[in-house]
Write a structure and sequence with these properties.
By secondary structure, this protein is of the alpha/beta class. It contains nine helices and ten strands. The model has no long low-confidence stretch (mean pLDDT about 90).
């Protein structure tokens, strides 16, 4: 009942719906009354339990069997610091209605404050709202800022349009553009994987490139779904993921890649003897 949009069961042709945000609950409620699990939904659900118990076939509930504790941001930072890791906090496009008493600027500053005692070289801020990153670029964390991009229309832009599109990032000190794999790769007339014009222009302007998301979709033998939509016609087996990763690294020139499962990216990086974050 506290959710932004409480659960509504499927009725006839109308699918089940619900929308619950972290801002609907207190931290105590999240940590003491909820369990961590992969995000999922069942449009045919009649109950809330059915709605969330629909993990996709290529994902897993292996780690959800004993009600994993949901960590706060600072709890998470303690774990990462204890293991010498890095951070990639994302400024989300929140549905939260900011007010004059709590503005988005205050939200940005609150997240930044959590990292005040962290080496800036270990923190990689990311976000779809590029203005947020322009703000971060004025702080000690300016060395690593990733502009997430899901503007699929950019694939239709001319070279000049792409230069104008990326220039504000360069002018405001943002260090990298971070689009989906489908925005970085295409197929040439010989059925080879090749960088898109989008990828080429970004590199020409000095932007680093970070791709997403390597292992978040169904089997490549089935086309790989949305993340591989621009190259699905040349994907034949699941092992083609190595070809995809190799072209991203060697030809596109990515500096890092997001992946839901680290095994393939780690295997590739170790075989090549490279630093791929």
């Amino acid at each position: 009942s506290k959710c932004t949009q409480p659960f509504r069961p499927a009725i006839g042709s109308l699918p089940a719906t619900a929308k619950c945000c972290t801002t609907d609950f207190t931290l105590s409620e999240i940590q003491n009354q909820m369990c961590g699990r992969m995000s999922s939904s069942n449009k045919n659900a009649k109950t809330p339990h059915q709605y969330i118990s629909h993990t996709k076939s290529f994902q897993t509930d292996l780690y959800a069997h004993d009600c994993p504790h949901i960590q706060s941001h600072k709890n998470f930072m303690d774990v990462v610091n204890a293991n010498g890791g890095s951070f990639s906090p994302e400024y989300k496009m929140l549905d939260y209605k900011f007010t004059k008493h709590y503005t988005r600027q205050m939200f940005l500053e609150r997240v930044l404050a959590d990292y005040n005692h962290t080496d800036p070289s270990r923190v990689f801020f990311q976000g779809f709202e590029w203005n947020d990153l322009y703000h971060v670029a004025k702080t000690p964390f300016s060395m690593n800022t990733f502009a997430l991009d899901k503007n699929w229309l950019a694939l239709t832009y001319t070279r000049n349009q792409l230069q104008n599109y990326f220039q504000p990032l360069v002018d405001n000190g943002v260090t990298a553009i971070a689009p989906s794999i489908s925005m970085l790769l295409g197929v040439d007339k010989n059925s080879n994987l090749v960088p898109t014009l989008y990828a080429k222009v970004a590199k020409e302007l000095g932007l680093d490139i970070v791709a997403w998301t390597l292992e978040r979709s169904d089997a490549l033998s089935k086309g790989g779904s949305w993340y591989y939509s621009t190259i699905s016609q040349v994907l034949r087996t699941d092992s083609d993921v190595i070809k995809v990763l190799d072209v991203l690294y060697e030809d596109v020139g990515i500096m890092a890649i997001w992946t839901d499962w680290p095994s393939i990216a780690t295997f590739y990086a170790n075989c090549k003897g490279i630093l791929l974050r």
